[in-house]
Predict the 3D structure of the following.
Amino acid sequence: VQLQASGGGLVQAGGSLRLSCAASGSTFGLYRLGWYRQTPGKQRELVADTSRGGSANYADSVKGRFTISGDPAKNTVLLQMNSLKLEDTGVYYCYALRLGDFYWGQGTQVTVSS
């Protein structure tokens, strides 16, 4: 599975950004798509993901601000990030879960400035 991420960038606090992730290659059996992020001094954490059938998970810190849409069955998900905070700054990684294996895309930088 290859994952192509796009989006990210620099935004002021309170602003919005959108990330997209497209899977290609051996996508049969792709079950979950989503995003993790790596922030300075912290472990990589799940931001949001969704499964075939639309079961979404969100980190508590982003609930009500971020929305994941799309479907692993269609190999694409979007992450709409609103009301961004300084602490959302980090490198965001698209990930996929397929037949018990994890796959990672390249990271995309999200920087929220004051």
The chain has no helices and ten strands. The mean pLDDT is 95. The two ends are 37 Å apart (CA to CA).
